[in-house]
Amino acid sequence: MAPGTYVFRVKASNNDGLYNQQGASIQLTVLPPWWRAPWAYILYAILAALVVWALVRYRSRQLRKANQLLERNVALRTEEVIRQKLEIETQRNNLADTLTELRDTQHQLIQREKLASLGELTAGIAHEIQNPLNFVNNFSDLSVDVVTELEDEQKRQQRDADLENELLDTLKQNLQKISHHGNRASSIVQGMLEHSRMGSGERYPVDLNALVDEYIRLAYYGQRVRNPLFTCALVQKLQPDLGKVDLVGQDISRVLLNLFNNAFYAVNQRLKQANDDFKPTVTVQTRIVDKAVEIQVSDNGTGISDTMQQKIFQPFFTTKPSGEGTGLGLSLSYDIIKAHGGSLTVESREGEGCTFIIRLPNGG
Q: By CB atoms within 10 Å of each CB, which of 16, 47, 163, 166 scores lowest?
């Protein structure tokens, strides 16, 4: 029964069936159970407040612990970030130093490659100039002998006019040959000066056929100076109407010298391995193809494998034994031709030979 106040009313009758109209009543009060008593609710409120206070206190302590942990993590992370920053700065400085060293090394290697080319070129030039000088010296000595013989003949009482005329003709021929070979030596020097005067990168009209002819001989004589027993057939297929092309002559000369030297090296290597029937041959061809000037340098040497061909123009890559090449010759040549707006490609079959193809825009 729910808590509350109740009134119990009773009506009774007698034996005759007459009811007492007023009846009787009793008032009853039902009290609630103790857990629903007012003091119980007060207790509940106090307990609830204690629970809330405990939860708040617990949560606050957890938050403080979390904050302290976060602060420690942040401090550790900050120290780690600072340490990583210092490491990165140190590595960056080390990389900068390494890059500087690499650039210095690259510059030294490039200079070494240029000096090596210069040495090979100088050897060829010396041979080229030595030949006409030898002729000049020989014909000068012969002319001195002819003059001496002519003087002796003129001192005789009975002079032989026919002999004197013959000696004079011989002297004249000798002087003509001296003049011819002297002019040849002068033209070689003039050509070198012409090529070196444009070292700043300025383009000017160049007779490509003459340049090719000159530098294949210079490269060949340079090889002969280093190895007097070396011989090689030189084949030139130069298109006569090629004309002049606007080029940086000194740069293109360096490219040609490098390609010719590589060709002579390849045929010489195969000569060491081949039988007596092998005839080293280096061929150079010039022609006009699709409004471009093409130079092909071919050899029947050792050739280049497909794997090597993919790397042949990379800096510092070389197929030569250690100490015989810097690996920069073809890389520099590739860059020079590219700077001219052209292309440098290679076609080769291992063991059969190799062809390097230069294509330059006609007119620069």
A: 16
Q: Max alpha carbon distance in the chain (Å)? A: 218
Amino acid letter, residue 59: R
Strand-strand pairing, 233-238 and 281-289? parallel
Backbone phi, then psi, for 299, in 5-degree steps? -145, 160
CA gap 334, 234 in Å, rounded: 24
Residue of 230, 251, 244 lying closest to 364 (CA atoms): 244
Q: Average pLDDT by consecutive 10-residue portion of the chain (364 residues)?
A: 80 76 80 81 91 93 91 88 86 82 69 58 63 79 82 78 81 83 72 52 85 89 83 93 86 90 91 83 92 93 86 76 66 88 91 92 68
- Helix H, strand E, coil C: the string for 28-82 is EEECCCHHHCHHHHHHHHHHHHHHHHHHHHHHHHHHHHHHHHHHHHHHHHHHHHH
Instruction: Write out the DSSP string of 267-331.
Output: HHHHHHHS-TT---EEEEEEEEETTEEEEEEEE-SS---HHHHTTTTSTT--SSPTTS--S-HHH
Query: What CATH number should be reported for the domain whose range is 204-361?
Result: 3.30.565.10
Strand partners, 246: 205
Q: What's the burial of 148, exposed, middle or buried (CB within 10 Å: 0-12/13-18/19+)?
A: exposed
